[in-house]
UniProtKB/TrEMBL annotation:
InterPro entries: HET
Domain Heterokaryon incompatibility: 1-90
Domain of life of the native organism: Eukaryota
UniProt source species: Fusarium irregulare
Protein name: Heterokaryon incompatibility domain-containing protein
């Protein structure tokens, strides 16, 4: 289907329809039913229509209302059709689309979004909206070399899947397949190898996802992705009982990597079917990195970052200090007082005086002996933590 939408000349979208049996040529909502009667003498004529009886009719722009321009984008994004998970990639891959909303018909293409009175959204506003909402048209990638740069593609991807995760899917197993068309487009533009929702060439930066604070996360019913993929994390119940993936990409200074300290040696995923961009049955990444053993201490009363990290050597702590808190992938109490490991991923700089260590928290895998699984992420400005990790043993670590 992704190929069909990508090659379509024009797509008509029944945006206001709640399902496949609903109509979309209904009465307009009340705010638009009060639009003044068109005065053909002063209106803008935009097209001619030849009738079956040989007469000619004209099509005019309707009179502009006082509605803010950004409301047009809102009508498109919040329409029932566009809250469906599969529709995001369809909207993004096509070149031209006509949206039938509950108030008006809107035109969208690679250059603009126009309403019935032919008003075009402000370029800066519209460009920003397309980036943050993920509505990036195919041709926008070819407009300048900057759009083709892998670093730009990698920067846009978290925005795209953050938009995608809030959309409705009937089957949880469609989470990765419904994203495959966009992944294939990104790959064709130079993003590199795609692995269960993230990009190998953008590791370890693409591993810096977390669970939202105070978020009660539930596990998927079946296997979704390896522990290092954001889609492995589980879901929260959103509006109207929608299962929404729980991950977030934290763009704060503490999780903005400015220097890498881990190197990807190997990474693979095994697809469930024939589509390498779709659902996966297993996967791993192998990193060359610094790895140190740690002990988790805390009261475990909360389900967010409440537990502390203390280094240890045998039964004796290296020092009585603590290093900070962990953004756990699951309830903190589940890892309470267990010996786990920390691997150094990289560094982030808030300013010239504060440098953050960014590390991943691991524990041994229960299913693959000798391998590890991710259980959390840590960012800390502590100098002693930096020295501990930089002095830790260099290892080749496989995470499943």
């Amino acid at each position: 289907m992704a190929t069909i939408y990508n090659n379509a000349y024009l797509v008509l979208a029944a945006s206001q329809a709640a399902n496949s049996t609903s109509g979309f040529l209904d009465r307009r909502d009340e705010s638009f039913s009060e639009t003044p009667q068109l005065d053909a003498r002063n209106a803008l004529k935009i097209a001619k229509l030849r009738n079956l009886n040989g007469t000619v009719s004209h099509i005019y722009c309707r009179e502009r209302t006082s509605e803010p321009l950004h409301q047009h984008r809102y009508k498109v994004e919040e329409a029932p059709l566009n809250r469906r998970g599969w529709v995001l990639q369809e909207n993004t891959l096509l070149r031209r689309i006509v949206h039938f909303t509950n108030s008006e018909v809107l035109w969208e293409c690679i250059e603009c979004l126009k309403c019935e009175y032919m008003e075009i959204e402000d370029d800066d506003l519209e460009e920003n909206s397309r980036i943050t909402a993920g509505m990036v048209r195919n041709a926008q990638f070819t407009r300048t070399k900057a759009y083709n740069a892998p670093e730009d593609l990698h920067k846009r991807w978290p925005h795209l899947i953050s938009r995608y995760k809030g959309l409705v899917l009937t089957h949880d197993s469609d989470r990765l397949p419904a994203l495959s068309g966009l992944a294939r487009l990104w790959q064709s533009r130079g993003a590199g190898e795609y692995l269960a929702g993230i990009w190998r060439d953008h590791m370890p930066e693409s591993l810096l996802w977390t669970k939202g604070k105070n978020t009660e996360c539930k596990r998927w019913d079946g296997y979704m992705a390896p522990s290092w993929s954001p889609f492995s994390l589980g879901y929260v119940d959103g509006r109207t009982s929608v299962r929404r993936p729980a991950f977030i990409f934290d763009d704060s200074d503490s999780y903005t990597m400015t220097e890498r300290a881990a190197q990807v040696v190997d990474a693979q995923c095994s697809p469930v079917g024939n589509d390498p961009m779709g659902a996966v049955k297993d996967g791993f990444i192998t990193l060359k990195c610094r790895m140190g053993a740690i002990r988790v201490e805390g009261n475990g009363r909360f389900h967010w970052a409440d537990s502390l990290l203390v280094p240890y050597r045998g039964d004796s702590p290296l020092h009585p200090g603590i290093w900070g808190v962990v953004d756990w992938d699951g309830p903190a109490g589940g890892f309470f007082l267990k010996d786990v490991s920390l691997i150094l991923l990289g560094y982030g700089d808030r300013n010239s005086y504060i440098r953050y260590v960014i590390a991943m928290v691991l524990m041994p895998s229960e299913t693959v002996p000798g391998n590890y699984k991710r259980i959390g992420l840590l960012s800390s400005p502590r100098e002693d933590l930096r020295k501990f990790l930089e002095g830790a043993e260099g290892r080749v670590v496989t995470i499943v």
